[in-house]
Amino acid sequence: MVSSEKLRKIVGKDWVITKREQIENYLVDETALAVRPKPADNVIVVKPGSSQEISAIMKLANIEKTPVFIRGGGTGLCGGAIPTIDGIVMSMERLDKIEELDEENLMIVAEAGVTLESMLKVVDSTRLFFPPHPGDEGAQLGGLVACNAGGARAIKYGVLRNYVRGLEVVLPTGDIISVGGKLLKNNQGLDLMHLLISSEGILGVITKVILRLYPRPVSSATLLISYETRCKTMDSVAKILQSGVIPLAIEYVDRDLIETTARYLNMKWPMTTGQAYLIVILTGANDDEVYLQGEQVSDICEKYNAVDILVAERREEQAEILKIRSEIYSAMKDKTADILDITVPPASVGVIMDKIDEIAGRFSTTIPVYGHAGDGNLHPHLLDDLQDRGLVRQVKREIYREAIILGGVITGEHGVGVVRIPELDLCPDRKAWDLMRGIKHVFDPNNILNPGVGLL
Ligand SMILES: Cc1cc2nc3c(=O)[nH]c(=O)nc-3n(C[C@H](O)[C@H](O)[C@H](O)COP(=O)(O)OP(=O)(O)OC[C@H]3O[C@@H](n4cnc5c(N)ncnc54)[C@H](O)[C@@H]3O)c2cc1C
Fold first, then answer.
1. For 178-230, what is each residue's pLDDT tens digit?
2. Of the residues 28, 70, 200, 206, which should be mutated to test ligand 1's pocket, given the most ligand atoms within 8 Å of the CB?
3. Cβ proximity of 297 and 280 under 8 Å
4. Atom in ligand 1 nearest the alpha carbon of residue 414
5. pLDDT digits (tens, 9 = 90+) for 359-386
């Protein structure tokens, strides 16, 4: 194990912490308590201030074969940032500078430890727009890229991967590479950048990111649409997607969940009819365009089972709806044994919802669901009654099996982390996993970066 003295020589004495009581916050993330991995006993937290310092740490860790766990904002939901073996937690918090907002090229260049919140403050003060909105703005840009985060607003512009144009990365061996740039096209060699995106920190430490921005849409509206049952919402989703209207978001929420969250936030959910809701966010270059889209979406929803439709046009009203939607996990956290993030083909969302209900019935529980319906990505919440009865894993695997039968995956957003590794046996393509392990070995021959994360 690398000594704290050697680390202090690299980053300075103030940036190495060894006292357990001072590092507790670095040993957890937002993973539900019931499934959260147990942190190791001997952990040193180090806070480098530059890529060069990170490179020196990685070189030292390689010589002394010490595991290094990268920590971003700690908002991950599958234990990826938790040090499960004795070693170093490398916190990225000091790499917090936005280097350039390039309005000419519609791009932003920032260090990886900048939080989404800080970046949005800067971008929102201009005429530019960063569309993705994963629910916790405490996430760092490096963590968002490493997890290829999605969130509510992915339908129109895609997930994080669609925004990343360039990366600076410190490899596990300590070499520093740059991939991509302020470019919209790049076919030079194998695409290492896209390999590093969603690698959950097992291939390198992301230290700098170049992200694409868009002109801010001038006009937007949020439609709340209520239905009597979950699966009745899904015909509307399919028809909206087929109609040519491309919403910024189509979110699904159970009534109980959203009302619980509104109460938790001391806010009021603005709709009282129905048991299941769609939230459709529309954007456009002017009010007329958004109005027309709104008419089209309303017509479709009325035709396909909607009980009621509410249109929010004021900015504050729309922000309140997004706020309540974004805080569901925080409101449910104490009651949640595990939050899943299965993805199925978008047209199969209604089928998987019925399967989830069927599984809930068989295990005499309720499984609240919300998620990104337009992306086929749902978050079933397994509640603590399943934990009390020792059934969390069994129910989880039943849901995973149904998603896989439909051509889906067990994780569409949060990643494998540590928590999903025991379930990878359900994901059938052995050769693909062998290749991934081979790639990991090429990048990290001594397996010192995020060992035990993302791969069997
Ligand atoms: C309330 C809430 C809502 C959420 N909503 C969404 C959502 O809608 N969509 C979604 O996709 N996710 C969502 N998440 C999950 C989480 O915010 C994302 O996974 C996010 O990308 C994690 O970023 P982080 O900086 O907090 O990373 P951490 O939790 O610190 O780390 C996550 C993983 O990334 C690695 N990592 C972190 N920084 C780097 C780096 N610089 N270089 C290389 N690897 C790194 C870590 O080692 C770890 O494996 C939500 C979480 C919460 C708590």
1. 999 999 999 999 999 999 999 999 999 999 999 999 999 999 999 999 999 98
2. 70
3. yes
4. 19
5. 999 999 999 999 999 999 999 999 999 9
* 357 in Cβ contact with 401 (< 8 Å): no
Q: What six digits make up the tokens of 344?
A: 């199925």
Q: Is the pTM of this model over 0.90?
A: yes
Name, in order, each residue with C-beta under 8 angstroms of 74's C-beta and a sequence gap of 6 or more: 25, 26, 28, 29, 30, 81, 138
User: Is there an atom of ligand 1 within 6 Å of 150 CB?
Assistant: yes
- Rounded Cα–Cα distance for residues 431 and 137 (Å): 37
Contact assessment for residue 381 and residue 369, using Cβ atoms and an 8 Å cutoff:
yes
Q: Within a 10 A sphere around the Cβ of 97, how many other Cβ atoms?
A: 13
Which residue, by CA, sits nearest to atom 4 of ligand 1?
135
**Which pLDDT score, from 0 to 100, does residue 429 have?**
87
Tokens of 246: 């491309």
What's the Cα-to-Cα distance from 215 to each of 134, 166, 219, 303, 313, rounded to whole Å?
20, 20, 12, 34, 20
Tokens of 202: 């097992």
How far is 23 from 75, CA to CA, in rounded Å? 16
HSE at residue 271, side-chain half, CA atoms within 13 A, is 30
Q: Which atom of ligand 1 is nearest to the CA of 454?
A: 49
User: Measured from the CB, is residue 374 less than 6 Å from ligand 1?
Assistant: no
CA of 239 to the centre of ligand 1 (A): 32
Q: Give the closest residue (by CA) to ligand 1 atom 15.
A: 76
pLDDT tens string 51-78? 999 999 999 999 999 999 999 999 999 9
R_g of the chain computed on alpha carbons:
22
